[in-house]
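Same chain as my last thread, 430 residues:
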Amino acid sequence: MITMILFGVFAILLLINLPIALAIIFATLVTMLVTIDTLPALTTIAQRLTAGIDSFALLAIPFFILSGYIMGQGGIALRLIEFAKVLVGRLPGGLAFVNVISCALFGSISGSAVAATSAIGGFMIPAMNKEGYNKPFSTAVTVTAATTGMLIPPSNILIIYSLASGGVSIAALFIAGYLPGLLVTLLLIGAAAIYVKRKNIQPLSSNSIGPFWPSLFGAVPSLFLIFLIIGGIIGGFFTPTEAGAIAVLYSLTVSLCFYKELTFKDLYPILLKSVNTTAIVMLLIGASSAMSWLMSYELIPQTISQTLLALSDNPLMILLIINITLLLIGTFMDMTPAVLIFTPIFLPVAESLGISPLHFGIMMILNLSIGLCTPPVGSVLFVGCSIGKVSISDIVKPILPLYIAMVFALILVTIFPSISEFLPQLLGLI
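reply #2:
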């Protein structure tokens, strides 16, 4: 009954287009007023909202958000695109591959799918259109490829999963995301290659591709951030939160002094956007923490766990059920509240079947990343359609093969835990 009230009220509030953070808070409040008469509802929710964001690890999020905005305007995206052109631009239809690789590279230093869509899509979608790709396909490639930034570190959502799971190592999660992120990138390139062959799109002309060494030299300062952040965390030189601060300082230095495409006048709007985004994320985290506390108080995760385990004791069957559920959830809920709300529900089930929190976390993030490019609530999908100047109905057909490629990657990551766990084990992080 409590579960029905909580999720029923939540679903109704979403249907009337109430902002998701407020929907979570009001659903939690209504459930407490109806079912719990021993605790002051408003005071308890206020306390849980505050406690939910009272975490040193969460300080990394505003830093990485700010560094992502700086990178988007500081010339870093353009250098990565030019470098990707040198690598794959001479292949038939190479510009589609350039788009995928550029999004993966930018995501690996910004940690934001929306930032990658904006920064890379603003250059690549018009360029692909000029080379004979239609607008919907160009947009679809950008939208799906941008989600690799959720897996390839540094990733804000992996930090949030660490919080929701009760303390899975952020360093281990960061390293675990590399192979799954690379797998998604390769499968998206494969799906794009099929389109290219069918449309007989030719390679880029030599005039469109710069020389190798200047392109590499231009991209090195951007790519070095990957080694600086991940190497520093693994080597124990700084924490993920400190790494976020270093990412801001480094991206600011590169954009202002090396590329010289950012001025001090540009910093105010960047800071303003970063504050707005951080406020939204933190409100979602606080609200979701309040709902998660209520679910734990009412033993909802244990009830759902018992129900799932009663259906089957086969780990793959349970993971299949969880994956299907999360794919449906991802179509109407953003990643942050989905991770915070459903990790406490599904993770105990996975652990009871011998599935590691690390493997489950990467599977969950990959699953919900697909929701970012799925209507009706996919935030990356809306940003991509806005940049590409196409409607969502136009993009449905060309995005389907790319969507299938992402689902295939999800299946492989689910079935083979070593894809997620190999690198952390190699480095002694688990």
